[in-house]
Amino acid sequence: MIYVVIVFLWVSLLLYLVMGGADFGAGIIELFTSTPNKSRTRRIMYNAIGPIWEANHMWLIIAIVILFVGFPTIYATMSTYLHIPLTVMLMGIIARGTALTFRNYDAVNDNMQKIYNKIFVYSSFITPLFLGIIAGSAVSGRVDPQANNFMDAYVYSWLNWFSVAIGFFTTSLCGFLAAIYLIGEARDDAERRSFIRKARIMNVAAVVSGGVVFIVSIKENIPLVQWVFGNFIGIAAVGLASISLVLLWYLISKGKRYIIRVLAGFQMTMILLTTTYKHYPNIVILKGGGHLSLIEHRGADKAIQALGIALLLGSILILPALFYLVWSFQKKSANGDADLHH
């Protein structure tokens, strides 16, 4: 049952990266959109993320619950030594959701809309930035349970070049995902060309920031190159991600709008696979060479058994409801577009 729980944890993180990433990326796209085009971008963005913007955080909640119940030592360590970036990320999620709600449903349309807009776009940038920082910190070898001062224990564990580089790489990926997703929501060629241009920019940003991640990892003696290229799975995943990226841009040039979303999601899957496969089951790399393992540091067998059963039963109930939610909103959006054309 432990492997069932681990699979659910990995899949939850993947779905949050793909779906939540596209959600956050929509705000990043808006942040870097010119003022005359912002209102149009907001309309398209809201139609795109409206069906799932709140449901996206379900995957994060599932991952947290799995860690809390199934791996209490890992949960306690991360929530203690990385509590600052975790708090910033959670505050960003709350601020972003609040701003999105008020700017779309506020009964009074006044200057507060400008404040809501700013909160939304900046929290859309900050949240994935700190999500990436947390992920980088977990494998950077900077978390030090033996630290005897505040800075070493709670600041330098995450405030380092590698973790920050991972943060910007994650932000770029979110922007890229959103741009790819929004291409399929564009109603005319001008909108479509605009999102294609943004996708190119975010693609370049992801490549550059990814290169920086490797450079910093070498300088800080983090074996990222070995994790990615030191095994067949990593090399195969990088190759498949590269091929899918070329295919994605080819299909964009041919006007394909929906298959490119699948390819973008596939690339995120390959990226997560390459960065987690080699050091599995170690999920946290500690300073001094120690680690926290999903196998060695799991909870009691009865807790794992109950958690695995709950996850299996929950997926039977939740996943069909989620698919129906997305389908119903998409159908409503399509009918709305048809009415506008008539």
TrEMBL record:
Highest classification ranks of the organism: Bacteria, Pseudomonadati, Bacteroidota, Sphingobacteriia, Sphingobacteriales
Keywords: Cell membrane, Membrane, Transmembrane, Transmembrane helix
Location of the protein in the cell: Cell membrane
Keyword field contains Electron transport: no
Superkingdom of the source species: Bacteria
Protein family membership: Belongs to the cytochrome ubiquinol oxidase subunit 2 family.
Sequence intervals crossing the membrane: 6-32, 53-75, 81-99, 119-139, 159-181, 201-218, 224-251, 258-277, 303-327
Coiled-coil annotated spans: none
Keyword presence, Endoplasmic reticulum: no
Main location: membrane
Protein name: Cytochrome d ubiquinol oxidase subunit II
Example of a GO cellular component annotation carried by this entry: cytochrome complex
Example GO biological process: aerobic electron transport chain
Bilayer topology: Multi-pass membrane protein
